[in-house]
Amino acid sequence: MISAKEVCPSLGDSARSIPALADVLPDEPEYTFSDRLSGQGGRFFTSSCFVWGEEDQLLVTKARWEVAGPPKAWAAAALGERQAARARWFDAGTMGVVDPADGKAAVLVPCSAPGTYVGGSHSLSVVVHLKRHEESGGPEPEQRLADLAVGAARSAHRTARCDLSSGVPDTAPRVGTDASGWQPAGPDSRTGFGACDVAAVALGGPLG
Q1: DSSP codes of every residue in 174-206
Q2: 92 contact partners, CB below 8 Å, separation of at least 6
Q3: 112 strand-pairing partners
Q4: Is the pLDDT of residue 94 over 50?
């Protein structure tokens, strides 16, 4: 049983994060949570949550502040090029992506407007990585990973004191839909990625 007092604050509302964790984490006699935060309320913001079982690290969630760039290039960096090409979308922030095969979900969240800091507008990149996902047996793992990413994104946006609206939904995101404001770039309407998009990322080219 996971108690609210143990769960990382950076995962957001424990009433939402605990059911998601219970579904995706492999069964262990007990879990250990470790939360880390730096750069609160400005640039260089980072937050992390580490979840351990008896011996192994089971899950890591990281949020970091970065210069806003093309969302598809961000997705390839957050998940990996191959993983991003097969990922499913959900509507959260600028973009939400989830790849249950690799145990990852990520959300890109608007944070600061151009002129607030040097370098243009800035975003928060939030990534959840379930490291032992092959042993988790909960229902709809992709939905639960998306739920965890959204909760962590909501918490990071608040803690970093962002001045732009997060675009993060108050309710659970719908996995499998295109991200808000997006048109699929390739023939696969489920992922929104085409072969040319992934090749452009590999070559360092821009993505629209």
Answers
A1: -TTSPPTT----SS-TTT---HHHHHHHHTT--
A2: 107, 109, 146, 149, 150, 153, 167, 168, 169, 173, 179
A3: 122
A4: yes
Q: Is 4 a residue whose pLDDT tops 70?
A: yes
CA distance 24 to 139: 8
Predicted confidence (pLDDT) per residue in 150-204, tens digit: 999 999 999 999 999 999 988 888 887 543 334 433 323 333 333 333 323 332 3
Spatial distance between the Cα atoms of 57 and 16, rounded to a whole number of angstroms = 21
pTM of the complete model: 0.80
- Region for residue 94 given its phi and psi (left: phi exceeds 0; alpha: psi -120 to 50; beta: otherwise): alpha
Distances (CA, A) of 78 to 84, 125, 138, 171, 203: 8, 8, 24, 23, 16
